[in-house]
Amino acid sequence: MSEKTVTLTDNSTGKSVELPVYQGTHGPEVIDIKNVYGELGYFTYDAGFTSTASCKSDVTFIDGDNGVLLYRGYPIEHLAEKSSFLEVSYLLLHGELPNKAELDQFVSSVTNHTMLNESLKDFFDGFHYNAHPMAMLTGVVGSLSAFYHGELDINDPKNRELTAHRVIAKMPTIAAAAYKHLVGEPFVYPQNHLSYAGNLLNMLFSRPTEKYEVNPVAERALDQLLILHADHEQNASTSTVRLAGSTGTNPFAAIAAGCAALWGPAHGGANEAVLNMLNEIGDVSNVPKFIEKAKDKNDPFRLMGFGHRVYKNFDPRATIIRKTCHEVLEELGVGKDPQLELAMELEDIALQDEYFVERKLYPNVDFYSGIIYRALGIPTEFFTVLFALGRTPGWLAQWMEMVNDPEQRIGRPRQLYTGAAKRDYVPVDQRS
């Protein structure tokens, strides 16, 4: 029992219940409400779970008011500038940064699991030629359990670790296969001598007819974006992975559920919405007009990629990726792309306009990631696939933490029922 408590009193009966209060390492204290129903007969109501802590977690901490994002206690700024995606993946899975031997072993394990079973490639032939790549990713990830059913004991730590390595390793291969199916080109096998991001770029853009050289600026930008997306506390897709995993389902099914949740335009599709907004604006000359439309509360137009639901001050990830975004644009020489010129003009005006500055509506990570993906030549509908690829180690870390939590039970939210009261069935020939 916590030393600090809160007393909740039912004013209609005078009955009270004393509820313990818990303090985490950072963030607001939480009230343990599990005894409210048993003592007072009430459920709590919290639409969207915006004020409910559904679990204890050691993985990620966000302070939205002050623009703080920590992976296992490490500031995102340090990791994005100094680390690599696979090192961050190890950190999320194991709780500590690896030493060189541990990192080498982890990288080797992931590298040696990048191949897909040849029969799995046939799955893609069943998709329509213009199927959305998130549909392919979600379906193929879920199907992995059919290939590794002998090592799916979620209570076995070795099985959990092996599965985590497999998923992280195969996500780029699956993603690239979805892309190649989308553009009608032959699949490209992974290359073990390349880095994680370099291998992904090679599988996306190399062709049998010509040699492909990985651009180091593009490689580092992609690796950095994956780091920035690796985890983000109990967001919708992460909560979905935990909820699905709480049933005891296999981890491939839980990760596929996370992919499905991330697909939503209000979640992982936000950077795709940025490019759609730029299409709507159309030309640099139209920017002032659309800025005014964004200020008008009665106008349905909204600036996508500005501000953030969690970060009330600034998105720390955007501060990092803004510099990288400009480096990519300079390196790849995409100055002739009207949409990218439009994005930079929009950024300049919004960062200086008093309306946006006062409201702290700064460009967020979705704004810059969409521009980077566009500069790399990645089609808009593929953006969310790369988001899912980056979020995979976070999903796996959260799933592994959930499995190991002795307090975790199958997720079973309650509801406030507002439907019809009990009524009698009337035969169809007697209904008016």
From TrEMBL:
Q: Does the keyword Transmembrane apply?
A: no
Alphabetical UniProt keywords: Acyltransferase, Transferase, Tricarboxylic acid cycle
Would you identify the family this protein belongs to, as annotated? Belongs to the citrate synthase family.
A Gene Ontology term for the protein's cellular component: cytoplasm
> What pathway is this protein a component of?
Carbohydrate metabolism; tricarboxylic acid cycle; isocitrate from oxaloacetate: step 1/2
Catalytically driven reaction(s) = oxaloacetate + acetyl-CoA + H2O = citrate + CoA + H(+)
Domain of life according to the entry: Bacteria
Q: Cite a single GO BP annotation.
A: tricarboxylic acid cycle
What is the name of the protein in this document?
Citrate synthase
Could you tell me which SUPFAM superfamilies the record lists for this protein?
A: Citrate synthase (SSF48256)
User: What is this organism's lineage?
Assistant: Bacteria, Pseudomonadati, Pseudomonadota, Gammaproteobacteria, Chromatiales
Molecular function as annotated in GO: citrate synthase activity
Question: Which residues are named in the active-site annotation?
Answer: 308, 366
**Transferase as UniProt keyword:** yes
